[in-house]
## 1
Amino acid sequence: MSDKKFKYKSAFDIIGPIMVGPSSSHTAGAVRIGNVARELYKHTPKKLIVTFFGSFAETYKGHGTAVAIVAGVLGFETHDERIPDAIEIAEKQGVSIEFLVSTKETEHANTVNLELIDEQEKLNLTAISIGGGSIQLTEINHYSTLLNHDQGNGLVFTADKESALPCVEMALENPAFVEVQQLNQETVFFVETVSDISQKLVKKIREIPGITAVMPTTG
Amino acid sequence: MFESIEELVQRAKDNQCTISEIMIRQEIETSGRSRTEIMNQMTLNLETMEAAAAKGVQGVRSHSGLTGYDAKKLQAYLDKKTVLTDDTFVKALCYAVATNEVNAAMGMICATPTAGSAGVVPGVLLAFREKFRSTREEMLNFLFTAAAFGFVTANNAMISGAEGGCQAEIGSASGMAAAALVEMAGGTPEQASHAFAIALNNLIGLACDPVAGLVEIPCIKRNAGGTSNAISAAEMALAGIESEIPADEVVETMYRVGRSMPADIRETGIGGLAGTKTGKRIAKELFGIDR
């Protein structure tokens, strides 16, 4: 199966997600990009810098993209009715937020870069919103990758390469693509799968010793 | 997974089943989940659609204040029993507008295939459900048929206005709704495929030109436009009319046209209706954007 051809893998990528409007690429997709950052960073940052490119840069105000990104970083889901108030909620939690726009040409019209910063940790993430709420991650801390991050895809972080990889492969019955990179002190496993990853499976992977972060799925 | 509409229709013929059944079987296979789990998830989507339409008909206003209460006007117009066409048609417009008004008000909706085009499929479904007295199962099947056509479109072209213009959003939604309506009315998989192609043919090259970058003007009314287009395409297909250009070639056309559209009319809020004197004035008043 030429699985790389399928940007969308499920009926629910087309009918869904259930979300707070007004735009699946600019709002729901943006929430999910924020969710990825949340999952990797694991806590609320002190400082958040968001840079919008392309169509995001032109229309992020009207589409609620700014509130959506912040909502995602706070860990809200696409249908959370607090999304419109996310910036206020974040500021109350002591997050300083900066929104920038860039005129730099990007491959995809809806590109955003997030920087999450505090005393201990820094995360730099670039992602694109490809439509209908589906997103792809293009860069993590300047390592480039191209993962479909929607239903049926996973991204796994671990500190223990030797023991974790076989576990991951076992857990994900049908990996389409596995890539391993070194990032700071951690070994990162990028695992893309053809089939859906259930919440149950995510929980099972989280329980594997050495795994420190697993991407949320939308199933 | 099926890669083309031709393949989708062929599978339905080979298995002597509907297109919705092919989509459901593929979902079971690729997700590893049971039919019940999949049906339950689609039921949640359907319930979200019903709730959004009901809320919109009551009347909502967007955050910007630019749009709202048009679905309520359509309902009042229907109540007076003086419509030009028929109740089902006007109800479809009403539910489509209602859904997209809720979307513009940052309310909860189900993206179908996107948020900007979320009104078309529910608009058609909820209006014709009343006419056909459809069961819940038939309504879920409608959504799976729509999903099957959207799935091919999304994988072979695009479903975002930023990538391909409004043809990718309202166009895709219109094609999806037309095909699903044909199946609901008892048409064949081929007729569904022609309805999809006819609906999309009519919207090739449609600009995505939101005024002030907001999913309001012209998006909300375009959901009604896409809805009426879907119904007329379904009527033609059920009458035995075919799209001379096969559905897959129409999808490919949408891709090519989308790639060649200038950025101004791909959701940047610069060109098209957004670039009119009034469009610019609204952008300046709301966000201080001056072009």
## 2
Amino acid sequence: MPLYYSTAHQLHDMLVSKEISAEEITRAVFNRIEQVEDRIRAYITLTKDQAISSARSVDKARAAGEELPPLAGIPVAVKDNMCTQGVRTTCASKILYNYIPPYNAAVLERLNEARAVIIGKTNLDEFAMGSSCENSAFFATCNPWDTDRVPGGSSGGSAAAVAVGEAVLALGSDTGGSIRQPASFCGVVGMKPTYGAVSRYGLVAYASSLDQIGPFARDVTDCAWLLNVICGHDPKDSTSAPYDTPDYTSFLKEDIKSMKIGVPREYMGEGIDPAVKEVIRKAINVYSGLGAVVEETTLPHTEYALPAYYLIAPAEASSNLARYDGVRYGYRAENAGDLADMFMQTRSEGFGAEVKRRIMLGTYALSAGYYDAYYNQALKVRTLIKADFDRAFEKFDLLLGPTSPVTAFKRGEKMDDPLQMYMVDICTLAVNLAGIPAISIPAGMADKLPVGLQLMGRPFGEGDILRAAYAFEQNTDHHCKLPE
Amino acid sequence: MAQYEAVIGLEVHVELKTNTKIFCSSSTEFGADPNHHVCPVCLGLPGVLPVVNKKVVEYAIKAGLALNCQIASFSKFDRKNYYYPDLPKNYQISQYDLPIAEHGHLEINVDGADKRIGITRVHMEEDAGKLVHQGTISTTPFSLVDYNRTGVPLIEIVSEPDMASADEAVAYLEKLKAIIQYTGVSDCKMQEGSLRCDANISVRPVGQIELGTKAELKNMNSFKALHKAITYEIERQTELVEDGAKVIQETRTWDEAGGVTLSLRSKEEAHDYRYFPDPDLPPLVIDRKWVDDIAAGLPELPDERRKRFVNAHGLPEYDAAVLTATRELADYYEECVRLFANPKLVSNWVMGDLAKMMNASGREIGDIRISPGKLAKMLQLLDKGTISGKIAKTVFEEMFNTGKDPDKVVEEKGLVQISDTGLIDKVVEEVIAANPKSAEDYRAGKEKAIGFLVGQVMKSTKGKANPGVVNKLLKEKLDQ
Ligand SMILES: [Zn+2]
């Protein structure tokens, strides 16, 4: 197994036994990037010099006998919507093409404290709006399993980087499925933690009440390791939960006997690709075989998740994105007449079509006279969706279903039909509306493309999710498959 | 011909006196170099999040309680969306439908009549920055933005449209200012912008129930301006209505130089602010006990204090009202009375000579150099007869200008009153001798003539002679 395809915990063992140095690992990953980046295009910005020097400092510390945290020296990629002090943070938008934040996002502070090696900033759909990574203002990222296909979105860069060995771990952000869906398309592990479990401070907001940072990894153990670093209360984020985070690796036990798993029929019905369904059915059999009690259940308001999401998220986005006006930073239109003209031209030229579409949707949904008909209704639906989950979790420890109704589609295939593109997220949106945690793990292949299995848990039920995910992984080998 | 009446409501913004901003820990200090008190949060940089300053909520509750409001048990922050270059996020975090306090009132007194003015609501919000133009806004080649003020905590106090004249509006604003200052949550300095006032004004025929079309007057920066602007606006609108023309709903500004109000912008292009709950800030659940504790810590407010001054100090209503207009003045007065227990005499001095000199010098009670201790000491000198009332005025003036101790002033200027009968006796004889006509008049029954003689004695003793003693001796001599 080449170094760049090793997991973080394997590399950690090699580092501890001094079989290898952090610098060697980092160089191996950058060599891999040189090999494949032309094909994959996962990164907007690479920070090789900084990465090498932080790897060296880890090696120095280890040589000096210092006790180091588990992720010390492990290469991590970061989605380019998290602020990195001194390193440009573009959100894959023309409007922020030259923006260099003066501060680090809370997760970056935590990664630095853990002595992880940051290797670069990954591509995304502009401002995290999209499901294919084609909405980047700079270039589209390709799926490592089939470069004619999309890696999923919006965290497609991070997913592809981990899948193809351009990073060992990565961070993404998930507003309506933006970690889980690309994890599913790229055949890696991706998790959206409970809303409030990871600080959003420094995550450039798309939809504040839905956004959540989470890990990409090659296996569940690595996912738990990265969770250990990024989860925890942050006084700088008022929505951060005052919650004592457990050691997530402590949940990695195979025994899931008598664990109760519900399969919402809404996630296995019409609209789900039969080949995907088949993979999920096999996964259910694995769980039954391991002694879990799997039963069908219902989340009756699931069909309203999509419309509710496409009112709430754009509404918040329209407000969150108002600050990009050309006054203080980023792109500014030249030759504008007066101030209003400058605002308008800057935003017309600086934002891409999908972002504009959502800003307009949101502006409309919040405007006087329509607020009650749209935004307020959406909030009510959100409450009903939450109640669906609450009811289900009275009976079940976990809910299970596909992450995406389809496997990775061809680039350009859905670009002209936004509604069809939005449908790709139907299995993931409700989780964000309810604020609960969910994971996508590789569950098998359909037409030579990875299929993701989604496990959803109670608020702060990450432990149950990890235990079930780990059990699946230990009894299958889907996570070991690599793109050619 | 119909009679018209004005309907006035005020919206007052008050800057809270916290050390740090409403959603970050940047300083709120006034007068720093541009963009010195800023951080990523108050600059609204991509990715930042607000964290509410608990002191701001405490101060808002305190102000609400002082204005007899009900404090919400559940409140929240909303976003008010509009574009402006000094508004870093292009939305302002404010409160919309669930403000921290509602349904209050305060009492005003105009021309001897008491009136209760309703307070609709008190809500919290963040301030915006400041645009700096070179020259005027229309001719400046560029504009600079100073973000020091962004995120400075404000409360907005909205009144009911309960005022009917400029006098009432000014009385309301004065009372509001006094109450807020008493609570200590703001210094309410209009000249530094920590108290800003907008007025909504409409007129209607007396007897009509529905309101006329209103104009909004923005940013009056003094009581005088407020009074003049409202007076002008009532006249303008009344004339329009009398002529059968329509008042346009618009925002107007007071032009001090021209003495007129001018149209700023028409309400037809009014913003749709697209308010919605700020998803970055969880709702505020206000603990009842916290509110009770804040209420228990409220100081005595102007109305209570005024009543106490009347009852405990035996002051006339008028004196009590003047002395309690600001907390500083009332504190000053009370400290003087504690050291010199003659409330009315102290009141006369504070409202008389002190007020006069403060006016003349433009000083506030907070920066005068006569401490209550010094004033009390001077009053003791007067009381003991060491100095005369006339000399006291001289001493007081010197004290006001130099901050010197009254003993020192009296000593340095040799102002000790002469009560020594022997000394005065001699002067009295000289004066009688020099003014035989007046002495004659007095003896002939013209009582008034003695006043002139007293004056002459005072003059030749440079005012130091004890007037009582002079009077007595003069009479004795003339009656002989
Ligand atoms: Zn700040």
